[in-house]
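User: Run a structure prediction on this.
Assistant: Running it now.
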Amino acid sequence: MFQPTLEQDLDLWEAWIEFDHLSTESFGTLHIWGEITAGRREKPYVVKTASGNGELRLEVVSAPALPHSRIAEVHFSEPVQNIGNYNTVVIYRGNQLLACIVDIEVVV
């Protein structure tokens, strides 16, 4: 039996910085990964909308979830110059706050 997934049931967002010991231009790469509900045929994606004062704002671009939605993975990444570039990641879908991440792990 198919049971619709509600957006508020999902709490699957992670943020980490992967240290790149070979790079001379950045400390590493910030990765944001999450799961959202999406239409069966669409491919949602994440865009950076703003940053400043240690905060990164992202928006998930996708159509609103329908009763027969599926769970889709989304990923965002960007190089960071130092470990303290961001201390908070805020993720929206339109006006809806999906996640606020304050614990960004560093993977060495």
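Confidence is low (pLDDT under 50) at residues 1-9.
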